[in-house]
Amino acid sequence: MGGQTPMEMDMNRDLTEETKKTSRGGTYISCMQSGGGEDSYANISRPQNFIFRVYTRSHLSEALDYLCTSPHILKLFQRVDKEQDGEERPLVAALSPSDFRSKEPPSFPRLKVADLGCSHGRNTLDYAAYILLELQTRLLKGCSITASQTREDVTVSEIEYLFSDLPENDFNSLFRSLPSLLQGIADQAHHACKIFTGGVPGSFHGPLFPTSSLHFATSAYSLHWLSQVPPEVLDKNSPAWNGGSVWLHGERPKVMKAFASQYRKDMRCFFQQRARELVKGGVLFLLLPCRAELHPSGALYDPRLDLWSGFFESAWSDMVCQGIVSEEERDLFNIPFYMCHEEELLSLLEEFVDVFRVLKMETMKGCVGMPTDEEEKLLEDPPAFGRFWANFIASLVRPMVREHIGEERSVQFFARLESLITERANKCAIRRNTLLVTIIQRL
Ligand SMILES: C[S@@+](CC[C@H](N)C(=O)[O-])C[C@H]1O[C@@H](n2cnc3c(N)ncnc32)[C@H](O)[C@@H]1O
User: Is the pTM value of this prediction over 0.70?
Assistant: First the structure.
């Protein structure tokens, strides 16, 4: 780090760099497919949702425990109640209605929570509902509030829940779903904290929140997106040129190295900003697809259903063979994803030992994205199988493909992709994912 601390480097950095997503001289649109179509992220992200419910929730709960038991956070909620029983009671900030009539406006302890790379749709809302309900349960623990007290009587805390994503994200559909989310939470919570929501458009590689203002941040399935495709992999004259391919294959070490170094650069920016924004004791919860093996050639997915290096790559080759897309156009398209190995993240976090403590880092292997019987049923119906997985890919990258080759050819591209998957459905297997869970606390 050239003798500079991460925070110093942060101050020197050109912040506009993060928001530019240049690849072939154009702009990458790395947000998800919006709207209510079959391939919209909201409608097709069932595997991510299944993973949330089956694998992620318990880790998220652990992260919230760390937050709510951190002395710095507990202090926020401490009301000294010594006169009554000689003991300090944490987590109580109940005000009676008469407090509102006093001249001074009442103030409550406040928690700020953010979802980074929130997208829109069910996952986004499920994360928010889970975090908001679980936080309330934890904040109420230790409170001397009786069950008969109502929300009007008591406010334990105010929670600000912020949804953050790139400006191109479908914030409209997300915002439209917030009233029912909040109503659902109010219906379930015994004593609701007052909840406020908001949207923060911007890249998580850059600054998003004021300094020392954030208590908890979650980011799921988002941090494998790079801020850009490393320029050298698109440059014919570079030894790291990824000619003939749109995906990252482990057998091209120079390409892999270029992606790995872009990832490190991006993640360093991410951690620098979160180090600045999180309060002491604040917690970061990260879930991202990762590699199970340190060696870059280690397969990311079971080759029998590797959507990216298998079908997505083949669809591009077909488009080139049919003369619909030129070789050059294809070579100028690469997906800005990088799936790291946990060692890579750990080694980067060593640069931040003074500001972050890693509380958990766990690679979960073999995670399935659907109940097995549902996936088996899908496998037995090739057209449905092809449509589902083509839509799944489209939900993630259609805006990017459309940006690169235009609307008409992108429609042809995804139709080709669907028929490829349908044709080979009988050779496919249940898709398994490797995921990295990380919990980090701001020191
Ligand atoms: C696969 S979606 C994940 C959505 C959601 N968190 C979930 O678990 O379903 C990835 C999201 O990351 C967002 N994203 C990608 N790069 C980003 C960046 N640099 N800053 C903020 N969001 C980003 C995309 O726009 C997209 O909404």
Answer: yes
